[in-house]
Backbone:
């Protein structure tokens, strides 16, 4: 199917606004959450081109419910209700970092702490920092919990003190290492 190239951040924002948010509003009224496009991929950094669509490409984003225990229910609801295609791209697709993982929707719904732990699991360094939103990130769609503010504070701590140790997210973000 021929389709016009849509930059990933724009595709994710439109997907959130037109597909994900209406479902969240309908099925989980009053849910407090943050939604953004984070993680690996050239589109996160704004370096995507039409060539980027040949692998790991489609509408995707992260949703962090304030009540992290709802993540499984939200993800299951989305799996059953998201459209098969959005703007000509499949909503469920395989990614190379999950060999044999199969096609599934790429709205990652997680508790913030678990997602942050996984994002930084490779160690504190440039790849991990790029997974966190910079101040004023254009890829933030909603945040009525300040979860993305917490992630920005973590990124700041990593950038100014990369050798001092573990970063602990929260209202009083701190760095500890003995």
Residues:
């Amino acid at each position: 199917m021929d389709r016009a190239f849509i930059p990933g951040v724009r595709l994710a924002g439109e997907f959130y606004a037109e597909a994900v948010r209406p479902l969240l509003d309908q099925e989980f009224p009053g849910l407090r959450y943050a939604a953004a496009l984070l993680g690996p991929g050239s589109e996160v950094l704004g370096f995507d081109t039409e060539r980027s669509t040949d692998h790991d490409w489609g509408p995707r984003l992260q949703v962090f419910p304030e009540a992290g225990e709802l993540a499984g229910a939200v993800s299951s609801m989305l799996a059953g209700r998201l459209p098969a295609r959005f703007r000509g791209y499949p909503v469920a697709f395989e990614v190379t970092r999950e060999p044999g993982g199969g096609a599934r929707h790429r709205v990652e719904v997680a508790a913030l702490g678990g997602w942050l732990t996984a994002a930084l699991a490779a160690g504190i360094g440039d790849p991990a920092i790029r997974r966190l939103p910079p101040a004023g990130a254009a890829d933030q769609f909603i945040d009525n919990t300040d979860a993305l503010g917490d992630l920005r504070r973590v990124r700041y701590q990593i950038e100014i003190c990369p050798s001092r140790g573990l970063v602990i997210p929260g209202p009083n973000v701190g760095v500890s290492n003995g």
Confidence is low (pLDDT under 50) at residues 165-178. Strands lie at 33-36, 60-65, 85-86, 89-90, 92-93, 104-109, 140-143, 166-168, 174-176. Residues 70 and 138 are 26 Å apart (CA to CA).
